[in-house]
Amino acid sequence: MIIVSDIVTIEDRGKYQGIFGAVIALANGTGPFVGGALVDSVSWHWVFWIVPMLAVPAALLIFFFLPLQYEKGNYKEKVKKIDYGGIVLNLAAVLLILIPLSGGGVQYPWNSPLIIAMLSVGGCTAIAFVLYEWKVAQVPIMPVRLVNYPYCWALYVQNFFTGMCFFGNFFYLPIYFQSVLGLSALVSGALLLPLIMATSFTGIVSGQIMSRRGRYWWICVSGFVLWTLGTGLKCAFNRSTKIWHIVLVLLVEGMGIGNILQSTLVAILANGNNSDRAVATGLRNFIRTIGGAFGLIISGAILANTLDTRLSHLPFMTPEILRNLTSSTYSLDKLGFDGKQMDLVLDTYIAGIRYIYILYTASAATNLFLCAWIGNTNLRGKPPTENDVEVNEESAPSIQQVQETSKEAEANKV
């Protein structure tokens, strides 16, 4: 994404970022399909073996065919500029917040001293990280100035909630298909194809529209409307939902996701400084990934707490079985439940998954609300920034220099 942002003009950035987003969506959705086929036909070990088999050729292609331009300078000086303090504070803050969120209410009660202490220290560490990046770091991993650009604060917040919805969606849909509907891993992966194809197709189309019209606001609004609608409709999924119903809902949601994945990045780059393209793209990806981590952790806590609240008091539910339910959601048929017990467990799973999709619907709706503050900057003919002006003034010859050059040329002729 950083390379595309650097080599493509702002007018064409939407088109190429749309294609890039479509490829990412295709890969994210094809993965479960391929993984399901491997699990059903060979072994789950191949899910991990296939990663290096694909990563090594990709790395070789990048090494041999991607032209690189290295920045000159002393290696030790470059190493000293790395933001070690920011890396440590960021990692500590994320871990201190995510760990208690994942274990709260399941392994430890929410009012336990450990949970309260970790959340408090994690919050203080997060504040310290922001202050360090703002006041101390020479080359910060998260430059605070990026948030001060017009409309960018809202776009970064949108990317956080986008990560919550996007990554959790691909995680909990297979759980619903396999654990609740009883479908195989292969069929579960195949049911993701409507979502994948709609996301990929709409991503390419929305990128073309942004490039031709030079605006992004309507793309973002329509995307979040469809995404909110699709996620909200999934709250109605139950144990008897028809396949055609699932396909239609995933098509609607996929069209919304396709509009959003790259349009918010194009908007961030359109409103920022050209010299910050790389770091702005990296920050956007980081925020979206952190949002995905928070979304998965919170969703897991919701499902685990729902199972614990509704099932722990039942006579057949031992602490060991409850731990197995919360830790391995794909092994319900191996826990020895009879018909009525399985019905209770599946109904509880449906309730937990419904709460999760209510969270995702609220996140998508929040992003739709934030569209009031993302602007609609023209992607064509963006005025030069201060850095661009300085470069142009230094590189462009003055009128006096041109006149002197002309006089010297005439004198040489004589």
TrEMBL record:
Annotated spans, Disordered: 384-414
Highest taxon listed in the record's lineage: Eukaryota
Domain Major facilitator superfamily (MFS) profile per the UniProt entry, residue ranges: 1-366
Annotated Polar residues bias: 395-404
Annotated Gene Ontology cellular component terms: plasma membrane
GO MF annotations in UniProt: transmembrane transporter activity
Transmembrane segments: 46-66, 87-108, 114-132, 153-175, 181-204, 216-237, 243-269, 290-307, 355-375
Descriptive protein name: Major facilitator superfamily (MFS) profile domain-containing protein
InterPro entries given in the database record: MFS (IPR011701), MFS_dom (IPR020846), MFS_trans_sf (IPR036259)
A Pfam family that the UniProt record links to this protein: MFS_1
Biased composition (Basic and acidic residues): 405-414
Keywords: Membrane, Transmembrane, Transmembrane helix
Membrane topology: Multi-pass membrane protein
SUPFAM superfamilies with a match to the protein in the record: MFS general substrate transporter
Species of the source: Didymosphaeria variabile
Gene3D superfamilies linked: MFS general substrate transporter like domains
Entry's localization field: Membrane
Principal localisation: membrane
